[in-house]
C-alpha cells in the first residue's frame, strides 16, 4: 500500500467519524442502541440471543442494552408462556417512530455529504458502501 492509499483510507475514516458525530449530535441514543433498533425495525421480534449474535455482543451485554432501551420506552420484552427464560424483543410504537426519524436524519446527512460529488463518485461510494455491508455480514 502506498502513501496515496493510506491518505485515502485516512480520509475515509475521518469522513465516517464526522458522519457518526453529526448523526449522534443532540441524540439521546448511542450508536449501538440505534443499530440495534434498526435491526429490530427490519427483523421485528428477536430473542436476546439472536440479537446478541447480530450485534456481536454477549447475551448479558445485549440484555443490559435492551434494559436501557426499555427504560427509554423504545423496546418491549415479551416472555413466552412455555419458557419464561425465552425473551423476545420488539420496538414499541415510540421506538418505531424514533428510529424512522433517525433514519430520515441519517439519509439527509448522507445526501448533503455526497452533494459535492460527481455522479461517478456517488456511484463509486454506493458500491463501496455495498462492499462494506458484505464485509460486516
Q: How many H/I helical runs? A: 6
Radius of gyration: 18 Å
Name given to the CATH architecture:
Orthogonal Bundle
The multimeric state of the shown protein is: single chain
What proportion strand? 5-15%
CATH class: Mainly Alpha
According to CATH, the homologous superfamily is Winged helix-like DNA-binding domain superfamily/Winged helix DNA-binding domain
What is the total domain count? Answer: 1
| Average pLDDT taken over every residue | 84
List keywords for this structure.
single chain; 137 residues; mainly alpha; Arc Repressor Mutant, subunit A; three-stranded antiparallel β-sheet; elongated
Structural notes for this entry:
InterPro entries: ArsR-like_HTH, HTH_MarR-typ, WH-like_DNA-bd_sf, WH_DNA-bd_sf. This is MarR family transcriptional regulator. Keywords: DNA-binding, Transcription, Transcription regulation. Pfam families: MarR. Residues 1-137 form the HTH marR-type domain. The protein is mainly α. Helix content is 70%, strand content 9%. α2 (31-43) crosses α5 (93-114) and α3 (48-55) packs across α4 (59-71). A hairpin with a 7-residue loop joins β2 (75-79) and β3. It has a single domain (3-136), classed as Arc Repressor Mutant, subunit A, CATH 1.10.10.10. The model has no long low-confidence stretch (mean pLDDT 84). The two termini are 26 Å apart. It has a three-stranded antiparallel sheet with strand order 1-3-2.
